[in-house]
Amino acid sequence: MKREIIIAKNSGFCFGVKRAVDTASNKNIQEKMYTLGPIIHNNDVVSKLEESNVFSIELSKIDSLNESDTIIIRSHGVSKAVMDLLNSKNLNIVDATCPYVTNIHKKVHDYHNQGYSILIVGDKNHPEVVGINGWCSNEAIITKDGSDLETAEIPKKLCVVSQTTEKQENWQKVLSILIKTSKELVALNTICSATEVRQKNAMVLSKKVDLMIVIGGKHSSNTTKLFEICKENCNNTLLIENETELSIDFLKNTDIRIIGITAGASTPDWIINQVVDKIKLAEKAE
Amino acid sequence: MKREIIIAKNSGFCFGVKRAVDTASNKNIQEKMYTLGPIIHNNDVVSKLEESNVFSIELSKIDSLNESDTIIIRSHGVSKAVMDLLNSKNLNIVDATCPYVTNIHKKVHDYHNQGYSILIVGDKNHPEVVGINGWCSNEAIITKDGSDLETAEIPKKLCVVSQTTEKQENWQKVLSILIKTSKELVALNTICSATEVRQKNAMVLSKKVDLMIVIGGKHSSNTTKLFEICKENCNNTLLIENETELSIDFLKNTDIRIIGITAGASTPDWIINQVVDKIKLAEKAE
Predict the structure, then answer these.
(1) Which of this chain's residues are annotated to bind dimethylallyl diphosphate (chains A, B) (predicted)?
(2) Given B4, B58, B128, B196, the catalytic residue
């Protein structure tokens, strides 16, 4: 039986991550390069890059690099201090910071210089948030959902930004607290629409398929969210990290005629394609 | 029976109004002057100014003035177009716009020039709001409490200001709607603390008195607000324009031992004093 396979629009890498991974991939395989921390939260991608001579290095080991070694800044971006440090070491810096994140750095830096306090809605340990905080002398107030703000002294002149992958719900929770006291509030909603658009397309697709496959890391929050959304609309939804985890037993079920696929923000196209290929191959063998 | 009379702190004229009225009052009595519209919403003050040769003139009658006639801009301020018109007529302009309102004009003009849409939280017919709107080409969205915004298309890049006499509650209502959709929100809470402080002191006082007297124009929005606040805490609250409207029948009620007084932003001290004097005189006559 021939089944229809539909891949949801905007599955997998967002623009910023694709740009960073392409930067690390599209090079002479002999040339050694480094990324400052793993380029994305996906072991398959990191292993594949290692095979082509791209290695992740932590900031604490930066002294082991030689002058003119190439270091790639991943899409999360880094603080001004880190950028200054890399420059001072005369490294060859390839800045693959997502342009949307660079825009946050710029705004935070400008408003901080204008005397605004900075507040970041996000996870204080996330590299993107750590990087943003580094553009306002690490003086930002950081909150996930504002629950820790109720008793805090909130500056009267405040610029608020968000981690690009933050939930709209948390943004609104924080803002609803700030509007009670702020005299001068500049609220820049820097949540990236890529996540929202990916979720929306997955939702639409999951409503019209007989089986939905979500590909992504089991610890990735955006993948888990995609799985939850699809599960709500299609009871028959699977979460897998790659094609090796896909059991093809479902092919025995003749009720499954349309198969939908979506993938989390850290899943490269080649992993999506491997899943599609496995299904097609199994069908041929039927 | 001797009653205690307590005047709430910060009753009456705010800084901006006092400044405008003083500007119109402190002059040679022979010299004729004009104010563009009544200088404040208080007939007693307007009559008193007329006695000293200061007359209110509407914009539509501006052609009846001669070159070099003096015209006072009241604390509410005016639009850029009106200011340009007065200048083009070579009038002697005395600008008594409240400096806090001038600051709103400046911010609105700047942000509008930077491509922001402007939203004003206030009463669209209030001269202050009409004036502010005139600093962004009369293109502002104007809302009282946001109830008309739920279905409106809200611009993504928005600068929000408030009428200086607006309620904090309405400000929060409007902002809680805007934070749902705005991408870039500059929220300048331009509610003047004079109003808040006056309201707070009136509220505190109204909780501990047996009778509360609010003095001010019945069409004045800030006086009406004061009246509402006091009425919530003291069922026995009166709104009067001046001492002539005060019936002293309440003196027969021996339950009234403490009398509180507050006054709207357009009530001069001499009117407050006349009310106090009337009560004291009546008590003496008992």
Answers:
(1) 41, 76, 126, 220-222, 266
(2) B128
B221 is in an annotated binding site: yes
- Among the partner-chain residues A179, A183, A186, the one whose CB lies closest to the CB of B179 is A179
* Number of domains into which chain A is organized: 3
Are the Cβ atoms of A189 and B189 closer than 8 angstroms? Answer: no
ipTM of the complex model? 0.78
CA distance between the termini of chain A: 8
In DSSP terms, which residues pair with B259 in a beta bridge? B5, B211
Among A175, A183, A189, beta carbon nearest to B183:
A189
Interface residues of B toward A, Cβ cutoff 8 Å, are 171-172, 175-176, 179-180, 182-189
Computed over every residue of chain A, the mean pLDDT equals 93
pLDDT at residue B178, rounded to an integer:
94
| pLDDT confidence tier of residue B232, bands split at 50, 70 and 90 | very high
Statement to judge: residues A176 and A219 lie in one domain:
no
Q: At which of B97, B125, B148 does a domain end?
A: B97
What integer pLDDT is reported at residue A150 of this predicted model?
A: 76
Locate the DSSP E strands across chain A. 4-7, 33-36, 54-57, 70-73, 92-95, 117-121, 141-143, 157-162, 184-188, 211-215, 237-240, 258-263
Q: Are A266 and A17 in contact (CB under 8 A)?
A: yes
Annotated binding site of A for dimethylallyl diphosphate: 41, 76, 126, 220-222, 266
For B166-207, write each residue's pLDDT tens digit: 988 999 999 999 999 889 999 999 998 888 899 999 999 999
Contact between A227 and A30 under an 8 Å Cβ cutoff? The reply is: no
- Catalytic residues of A, by residue number, are 128
Under a CB-based contact definition with an 8 Å cutoff, are residues A56 and A32 in contact? no
Are A216 and A236 within one domain?
Answer: yes
What is the percent of chain A with per-residue pLDDT over 90, rounded to a whole number?
76
B119-140 pLDDT, tens digit per residue, is: 999 999 999 999 999 999 999 9
Same domain, B149 and B87: no
- The CATH code of the domain that includes B198 is 3.40.1010.20
Beta carbons within 8 Å of A283's beta carbon, 6+ residues apart:
A1, A2, A3, A251
**Mean pLDDT along residues A230-239:** 96
CATH of the domain at B88: 3.40.50.11270
Cβ-based contacts of B179 with chain A (< 8 Å): 171-172, 175-176, 179, 187
Do residues A213 and A265 share a domain?
yes
Shared domain for B199 and B139, answered yes or no, is: no
Single residue among B191, B209, B229 that ends a domain in this structure: B191
What are the chain A neighbours of B172 within 8 Å (beta carbons)? 179-180
**Pair A233, A241: CB distance under 8 Å:** no
* Distance from the A279 Cα atom to the nearest Cα atom in chain B, whole angstroms: 41
Residue B275 has pLDDT above 90, yes or no: yes
Of A171, A172, A182, the CB nearest to B187: A182
Say if the Cβ atoms of A183 and B189 lie within 8 Å. Answer: yes
Of the residues B108, B171, B172, B175, the best mutation for testing chain A's interface (the one with the most A CB atoms within 10 Å of its CB) is B175
Q: Could you tell me the residue range of the domain that residue A264 belongs to?
A: 4-12+194-285
Structure tokens at B121: 């939280």
**For A131-187, how does the pLDDT look when each residue is reduced to its tens digit (9 = 90+)?**
999 999 999 999 999 999 877 788 989 999 999 989 899 999 999 999 998 899 999
Give the mean pLDDT of chain B.
92
